[in-house]
Specification:
mainly alpha; extended; TAF1A; TATA box-binding protein-associated factor RNA polymerase I subunit A; SL1/TIF-IB_Component
C-alpha cells in the first residue's frame, strides 16, 4: 500500500530529533521530496507541506488539524484514509517546538501501529520496517516499541523472530539505567521467559509421547529451557503487580519437577502480600494448588473465605457453599446460606440451575427441621424482598424459564413459593404448567409450599408487606 511506511522509506523526515540520534545515524533528506506529496483526500490547506519559513504557530495548527483528521479516520476504521493523512503528519518530526517535536514519535508510533495492524494491505515486512524505525526515533520508547513489535510477531505465529527480538532488546543499554528502564527490561526478560516456557512445554509433550524412549540430549535441552524460563519468570513476579500468565507458567514448571515448597511460597506471596494489588486469580491459583495437594477442608475454606470477600459472585462460591454445608458447625451452615443468596444477587447467576437448587435445598432443610434457624432465611430475605420479586420471579421470567429450562423453573418456583407464598405469579404459572406434565411431582411441591410458606414464614414476618408479582 502507498502508506506512510512508504513515505518513511523515501525519507520524508528531514532530520531526527536529538533524542533519536543516540546511535549516530541521522537521516537527511532533501526538502524537494516534501513538495512531491499530494494527497487528493486532504483539505486544501493541508495539501502542501509547510516549510520552515512559515510561522511555528501555523505549522502546529496545521498538524493539529491533520491529527484530528487521522483520529476521525481511525474511529471510522478508514485505515487507508488514515495512512494517507499520516504521510503529511510525519512532518511533525521537524516541528520548531522542542516539546511538540519530542512528543511526535510517540503519536506516530501509536497511530502507525494501529493502522498497520488493521490495514488490509499491510504486510509483516512493512510492520517490521516501521517498528525498527520507531525504535530509533527515541530511546525512551525503545523497549516499549520492542515489546509491541514482539506481540505483533507472536500474533502472526512468528515465534522464533519474536524470541530473537527479545534477545536483542535484553542486551540493549542506553546511558545510565533508570528505574523505568529496569522495569521494562524485566518485562522483556519475562516475555522471553514465557517463550522459553513455550519451548519447554513442547519438549515435555514430545518427551511424554516417546514414553521414556528419548535421548539424554532431549532431556538436557528441556532442562535448559526450564532453567532459562524459571530465572526470568521468578524475577518478574517479585515485582508488585498482576502477573497471572507468568505465575501460571512458573508454577507449571515447578510442579513438573515437584518443587512444591517453592510453589506454595510463590502462590502464598502472590495472594497475600499487601504490596501486590488485589487479585482474585491469585487466590484461585493458591486454592487450586492446595486442592491438588490434598489440603484439609479447613485450609481450603480459609482461602475461599478471602476470595468471597473480594468476588462474592465467583464460580468457586458454589464449591465453598458445598464445603460449608458439609461442616458440623452451625455458623458454617449460616454462612453457606448467605453465600448462596449473595450469589443469586448477580445477573450472571439468574439462570444457573445448580445455584437455585442449592438455595431451594437449604431453605427446605431449614423448614423441615421444625423451622429451626428460620431467622436466617428471614434476615436474608428482608434485604431482598423489595427487588428480588421483579428481578427473579416475574410472570415473564416464569414463562421464559419454563420454555427454556424446566429444571431451572422448578427450582426457582419452589423458592418463590416459599418466599412469596402460593399466590406468587412465578409459582402459580410454573406449578400450573407442571401439573399438566408431571402431576404427582408438582402436587407434592404445591403441598409443601402451602404448608410451610403459610405456617412458618408468615409467623416469622417474612411475607409481611411483600408484593406478590
Amino acid at each position: 500500500m502507498d502508506s506512510f511506511v512508504e513515505q518513511l522509506k523515501r525519507g520524508t523526515e528531514e532530520e531526527f530529533t536529538e533524542e533519536s540520534a543516540w546511535d549516530g545515524s541521522a537521516v537527511n533528506t532533501a526538502s524537494s521530496s516534501l513538495s512531491a506529496i499530494y494527497l487528493p483526500l486532504l483539505p486544501r490547506y493541508l495539501r502542501h507541506p509547510t516549510t520552515r519559513g512559515r510561522k511555528a504557530t501555523e505549522f502546529q495548527e496545521t498538524k493539529k488539524a491533520c491529527l484530528n483528521y487521522i483520529q476521525d479516520a481511525l474511529l471510522q476504521h478508514q485505515w487507508q484514509r488514515a495512512a494517507e493523512f499520516m504521510t503529511n503528519y510525519l512532518e511533525t518530526l521537524e516541528n520548531t517546538s522542542a516539546e511538540k517535536r519530542m512528543a511526535a514519535p510517540e503519536v506516530i508510533w501509536r497511530i502507525g501501529t494501529e493502522i498497520l495492524c488493521h490495514h488490509s494491505k499491510s504486510t509483516i515486512e512493512e510492520f517490521n520496517y516501521f517498528a525498527e524505525r520507531m525504535k530509533n526515533l527515541g530511546v525512551k520508547r525503545y523497549l516499549k516499541v520492542c515489546l509491541e513489535h514482539v506481540f505483533h510477531l507472536l500474533c502472526n505465529g512468528l515465534i522464533d523472530e519474536a524470541y530473537q527480538n527479545l534477545s536483542l532488546a535484553e542486551g540493549w543499554r542506553y546511558g545510565e539505567q533508570t528505574t523505568a528502564q529496569d522495569k521494562e527490561l524485566k518485562l522483556i526478560q519475562a516475555y522471553k521467559g514465557l517463550l522459553d516456557y513455550y519451548n519447554w512445554a513442547k519438549k515435555r509433550k514430545a518427551m511424554l509421547e516417546l514414553d521414556g524412549n528419548f535421548a539424554d540430549s532431549v532431556e538436557q535441552e528441556m532442562h535448559s529451557f526450564f532453567r532459562q524460563a524459571a530465572v526470568n519468570l521468578k524475577e518478574i513476579i517479585k515485582i508488585p503487580g498482576v502477573w497471572d500468565p507468568f505465575v501460571k507458567c512458573y508454577v507449571d514448571l515447578l510442579e513438573f519437577y515437584e518443587d512444591y515448597d517453592e510453589v506454595r511460597q510463590v502462590l502464598s506471596e502472590y495472594a497475600y502480600n499487601s504490596k501486590f494489588p488485589p487479585n482474585p486469580n491469585a487466590h484461585v491459583y493458591y486454592y487450586q494448588f492446595l486442592k491438588r495437594q490434598g489440603e484439609s477442608k479447613k485450609t481450603l475454606m480459609s482461602v475461599l473465605k478471602i476470595l468471597h470477600e473480594i468476588v462474592p459472585s465467583h464460580e468457586l462460591m458454589l464449591e465453598y457453599n458445598a464445603m460449608l454445608q458439609k461442616s458440623k458447625k452451625r455458623e458454617n451452615h449460616r454462612l453457606g446460606l448467605e453465600i448462596i443468596f449473595t450469589l443469586l444477587d448477580f445477573a450472571g447467576w439468574k439462570e444457573h440451575v445448580k445455584a437455585w437448587s442449592c438455595l431451594a435445598k437449604q431453605i427446605k432443610q431449614i423448614l423441615e427441621n421444625s423451622g429451626k434457624h428460620l431467622d436466617w432465611v428471614t434476615e436474608e430475605w428482608n434485604s431482598r424482598k423489595d427487588w428480588w420479586p421483579a428481578f427473579h420471579f416475574s410472570h415473564y421470567l416464569a414463562k421464559r424459564n419454563w420454555q427454556e429450562n424446566e429444571s431451572l423453573a422448578c427450582e426457582k418456583a419452589l423458592v418463590a413459593g416459599i418466599l412469596l407464598g402460593k399466590d406468587c405469579k412465578y409459582f402459580k404459572y410454573v406449578s400450573h404448567q407442571g401439573c399438566k406434565a408431571k402431576k404427582e411431582k408438582f402436587q407434592t411441591m404445591k403441598k409443601f409450599v402451602k404448608k410451610h410458606s403459610s405456617a412458618h414464614l408468615r409467623a416469622s414476618g417474612v411475607l409481611d408487606s411483600c408484593t406478590h408479582l
